[in-house]
Amino acid sequence: MDRTDNSWLPGTLIGRADELAALSDHAEAARSGRAGLVILSGPAGIGKTTLLHAFVNGGACQGMTVLHGRCGEVVTNAGYGGVRALFGSLGLTESGDEGVHESPLLKGSAGRALPALRPAPAEEEPGTAATVYPVLHGLYWLTVNLTARGPLVLVLDDAHWCDERSLRWIDFLLRRADDLPLLVVLAQRTEAEPAAPGALADIAAQSRSTAIRLEPLTDDGVGEMVGRVFPTPDHVLDTAFVERAAAVSGGNPLMLAKLLSELRSMGASPDEKSLGAVAEVGQGVVALSVRALMGRLAPWVRDVATAIAVLGEEDGEHVGALAGVPVALVEEAVAVLRGAEVVAPDRVDLAHDVVRSAVLDSSATEELGELRARAALLLSDAGRPAEEVAGQLLLVPVVDQPWMRRVLREAAAGAETRGAPEAAIRYLYRVLEAEPHSVSARAQLARSLAEINPPEAIALLAEALALAEDVRVKATLAVQFGFVCLTVQQAPAAVRVLGEVLDALEAELGADPDPADRELRALVQSVLLITGCDEKATIAAVRGRFARTAAPAGDTPAQRQTLAMMSVLTAMDGRSAERAVRQARRAQRVSDAATGTLPLIFSAFTLGLADDAQGSLEALDLSLRYSQENAAVWTYVLGLSTRSVMLHTMGEIPDALADAQTAVEIIADERWSGNVTMPQTALATALVDRGDPERAEALLERIARPNLDGFVMEYHWYLMARARARWALGDSETALGLFLDCGRSLEETGITNPAFAPWWAEAACLLADLKRPEEAGDLVEWGAGLARRWGTSRALGLAALARGVTTQGRPGVELLAESVELLSRSPARAEHARAEYLLGGALLEADDARGAREHLRTAADLAWRCGALALAREARRRLVASGGRMREITTSPVDLLTGMERTVANLAAAGAGNREIAESLFVTVRTVEMHLTGVYRKLSVSQRAELGAALRSPTAPGTQAPAWVSASRGRR
């Protein structure tokens, strides 16, 4: 794809041997699997393009796939314009006979790259905004597919004009490029203001980045160029002439070449007699010579040159139409301009950007603006993609014609569809300049800003809400406003706006709205619930409002989303498990992609609290599948974290650990990881039960989400995890304080479900452990009252447990026996094991050693099977101390696996290849290979076929997990 040349530059590289050698070394490193990045910089004309040509066309890149693209000023704002410049030569957007994209390079997740590769959105693509991640994910896998064929070199010239989304992808790629045979080379002008300075800065800050700055030619390099332009028989150069040429040109190869060319055309000789001419000609050598040439040319030739400067590389028909010159004369004009070294020798484009600037500077500003507007209209009438036309319109001083704004809106929609919000934003700001009171422009602009600048999106939506008069328009704006507010912790503002709009909407619609209006109302209700349940400051308001609202039927996606959130409120209220389950199951009645993943996750949470383990896990598994299919990494992480919490509650601790650690590893490479707490909290919770509280504590200490104590779910899970870790580390007083803090916070929030963050039961056990059971009386009775109201086996079992450990003598033993019975009927196997352990301890104190040994043995077996190794070891210790026998509880090979290793091993054992595993977990193939290496070593297996048997090896004798556990996880 190497199409750039310049007749003014020497045919061979001069004075750049060291830089070429450095690039060659990086290419060699890429061959050996060490990814690299080189940023080549220098002023215009310093020789960046010539150096790149020598590099990609020389021996250094032999046998490597080289994709060489160049960015341009006109297309700098087009989303993924730089990506298309790189990959365009591969022809990946060409379809087969039936319209199917058949290239093997687009297999698997790489197919998600297509929106970025197409010059315009395809007709079959949805006209809705795409999130950024799926396209980045697809381009990453496209690159991986290319590297599978051999080492790859990506060379992007004039990167200072590259669009932000392409640069963000390069940054995304390089952060995941360990061990890829890949070299990325970016060339940029130092004096030019980049189109996306922040993105370029982020790329330059990468640890693998190497900067090469091209310095002016030395006197020896200047002398070599002088010798080429003015060959002498004896090859002796006049030193004074060389020094003067170097000083006047600044050692810039482009300036020097043009200077020498002008001197030769004047008949000057390279000696002292021409020193004055050197200084005279050297005053702005390129610009002045181009302007002088333009003044000497026939008007129609000058018009052709200006048209080419505006359009860039374009066919003669369009150049002629813009210049007002017949196509036959365009060819003649191009020949004249090529002879004058203004047009490149191999294409209809100007020879250099410096020449382009000089040609454009020769036109008046107003005249140039009119010419660009005509160019945009010409391209639009020719059926060019809206983003290509918009590139011209962005350079027009005023977009004062309706067609211009229509094209900019269409271009913005196309950019949204391909997941390039930065481009859409630039187009829409121009629309807003021309339509300052436009509600729709603000809404569209806010949609593009939502991911990259939420505060600005919120401000625009607030303006749009103030300008909108139709209540239905306000409703759609309020929904958009609510979701954006969630990302920046502004739930109170969202609840206020959504509540006001919902009131107005209900007043407008009346008692019997039509189906479309009913769905709109349900959508506003659901978003009000989602935003209101996020923060402690707002949950009371939505709870009060929806206590008076009838639950919808669940026939539509918005109704199912509303039902899912209402089920959460019902569950948190803790009054009716039956009602909460009914709402949650109706929310799941139709589970499809249109419904989305959030209703599945929220309803799964409710079902888990109500002891419906199978329903909860089935919903979460489905949500994860939808997230994988759509490369929706945020909802995938949320689903994994929620499933980890549910699995932990159900006593499936190794699987809980695997899900949580997978989520933690995924977020490690994401820029939004600082606003996420659930993966770390879920992982810490599982680690404590696995006997690793030190690691759990370290993980929790790294959580840095602002205002964490203001959140309904995350804060209380965090407090519970932190308290359990401190308790396991021997800091009982701090742990007790954290449990009590959790209780106070829940009371302030109005959450009275005994099974959500059961701090009261934990605090009772801790106080009993501290021999201070009398302090637990009030909180135990309070929790037991809530448990009776909620009525699930787990809640009632925890209540009996808390009362049992704080009651002396035989009554305490009887309460613990009741706890064992209740928890054995619940999905909470680890808590059942704990109850068996505490009952065994109570029987020991009652001098019933035989009965104690029976329950301690059951506790150890059950805890081991749950993966609660800390409890299993403690139960065995007390069993042995009481005269019982049991083999030492050692860590089995499977127990040595980390959570992520277990996840990878299970997928590999099920038949998934390394690439399939990597795509499904949003990690690199190298990461999968690394984890499998660890799995093979720890399990002492040498091949994939042995994994299934190794993973199925029992870790201890005893009762198997209930059938519903395996069934709901798909492991019968």
What can you tell me about this protein's structure?
This protein is mainly α and 972 residues long. It has a five-stranded parallel β-sheet with strand order 2-3-4-1-5, with helices on both faces. The chain is elongated. Residues 1-11 and 955-972 have low confidence and may be disordered.
For the biggest β-sheet, the strand order reads 2-3-4-1-5
Which structural class should the secondary elements be placed in? mainly alpha
- Beginning-to-end CA distance, first to last residue: 54 Å
Molecular shape: elongated
Task: Describe the sheet with the most strands.
Answer: 5 strands, parallel
Report the strand count: 5
Oligomer: single chain
Average residue pLDDT:
88
The percent of residues in helical segments reads 55-70%
Give the strand content: under 5%
What is the alpha-carbon Rg in Å?
Answer: 35 Å
Q: List unreliable stretches of 5+ residues.
A: 1-11, 955-972
Count the helices. How many? 48
Observed structural traits:
five-stranded parallel sheet, 3% strand, disordered C terminus, 62% helix, elongated, 972 residues
